[in-house]
Amino acid sequence: MPQPYVLLSAAVSLDGYLDDTGPERLLLSGPADFDRVDQVRAASDAILIGAGTLRTDNPRLLVNSPERRAARVAAGLPEYPLKITVSASGDLDPEAQFWHTGGEKVVYTTDKGAERLRTLGLPTGPAGVDVVCVGPDLEWPAVLDHLGDARGVARLMVEGGGRVHTQLLQQGLADELQLAVAPVFVGEAEAPRMFGTGAYPGGPTSRLRLVETRPVGDVVLIRYVPSVPGTGPTVSAADRHWLALACELAAECPPSGTAFSVGAVVVAADGTELARGHSREAGDPVAHAEEAALAKLDPTDPRLASATVYSSLEPCARRASRPAPCARLILDAGVRRVVTAWREPDTFVPDATARNAVLAEEGAVVVVVPEYEDRAKEPNRHLVG
Ligand SMILES: NC(=O)C1=CN([C@@H]2O[C@H](COP(=O)(O)OP(=O)(O)OC[C@H]3O[C@@H](n4cnc5c(N)ncnc54)[C@H](OP(=O)(O)O)[C@@H]3O)[C@@H](O)[C@H]2O)C=CC1
Ligand SMILES: Nc1c(N[C@@H]2O[C@H](COP(=O)(O)O)[C@@H](O)[C@H]2O)[nH]c(=O)[nH]c1=O
């Protein structure tokens, strides 16, 4: 299984805090928003919190609505989503409600943390806690890989706290951010902030993409998705969004029995969409997606050198209908990163993938994200079965 879709969820004060410094958890959401959060939980395979939140809030992290739990069971899912926490220290209270309520639980920890956890007497047995040791340090990609592969988690809701949200966002691993902005001021320098200091993808000039705003009682729900491409071979959450868009564009191509339907998007390093295109665009019966997108750009645009081309099918390296194949157009444009869902089958060109090695041979990084292959193939079923 691929890594899960990672949804960061939090309520935040107008001055950017997650909580105050008092002993009780600060309720920033109102009743309507807590109900919305319950709905998001019910739609998730797993809910993750950092050990800091576990220690401070003593949460239960349940789906509170009996109807939502019943709907999960009717759909063949466990009554409660899997609960997950992460801790390097292993310094966790075995009496915390987290361990004694809801369904299955996992704690991801380090070698040192695992030693400490063994001494705590956490609930064991079939309904007990699964302690997963990931080595000397806890790296998020390893945790997400494990959640996808070993636990089959497709949709992960992360409910804080600030350190966990900050790391996932800074490492380009968050697919979506759901912020409930509450009409409250905390005003305490020592209170936990929603996001910490450090480098965020694309820096302060790059903007996340707004997908929704909605009043929920007196708070406002804001949903953003990150837009900054990954670097080199590393696939960021934003890479998956752009590749999904390329696959959607492929579905817009006029059908053909003699050519693939492909979509492409060119995205600058700060997450700005520069151009998009699809096969046979604007009535041109032989236009390719990457060619159509690049044709919309000024070839001297300085952003091209650090841009990423997303293409549902890997760019062609040989074609009869035009003098230059798309791989050549991409290299000539100065682009050095390509993300694609589907290696070219030999339907129209023998040894297509071997020929397509030209991109890598001339210094471009080609990243294949096979979890999107089915979407890329969908408008081409009549060609490849
Ligand atoms: N308003 C809201 O919606 C929410 C508010 N909150 C608030 O946030 C506050 C807690 O946030 P915060 O203090 O930032 O804590 P976090 O919940 O982010 O937990 C941080 C802890 O998680 C573990 N951890 C995090 N990243 C790693 C890593 N890469 N490797 C190993 N361990 C890791 C460490 O545990 P360890 O120390 O054991 O090694 C670390 O101390 C609370 O006040 C809570 O009320 C929390 C969630 C939502
Ligand atoms: N304070 C706060 C949140 N806090 C989150 O809710 C968790 C507790 O949930 P439960 O176990 O159901 O009581 C807590 O650990 C933290 O992750 N969430 C929000 O949407 N809005 C809020 O104002």
UniProtKB/TrEMBL annotation:
Residues 237-356 form the CMP/dCMP-type deaminase domain. It is an enzyme of class 3 (hydrolase). Keywords: NADP, Oxidoreductase. Pathway: Cofactor biosynthesis; riboflavin biosynthesis; 5-amino-6-(D-ribitylamino)uracil from GTP: step 2/4. It comes from the Bacteria. Its EC number is 3.5.4.26. InterPro entries: CMP_dCMP_dom, Cytidine_deaminase-like, DHFR-like_dom_sf, RibDG_C, Riboflavin_Biosynth_HTPR. The keyword NADP applies. It catalyses: 2,5-diamino-6-hydroxy-4-(5-phosphoribosylamino)-pyrimidine + H2O + H(+) = 5-amino-6-(5-phospho-D-ribosylamino)uracil + NH4(+); 5-amino-6-(5-phospho-D-ribitylamino)uracil + NADP(+) = 5-amino-6-(5-phospho-D-ribosylamino)uracil + NADPH + H(+). Converts 2,5-diamino-6-(ribosylamino)-4(3h)-pyrimidinone 5'-phosphate into 5-amino-6-(ribosylamino)-2,4(1h,3h)-pyrimidinedione 5'-phosphate. In the N-terminal section; belongs to the cytidine and deoxycytidylate deaminase family. In the C-terminal section; belongs to the HTP reductase family. This is Riboflavin biosynthesis protein RibD.
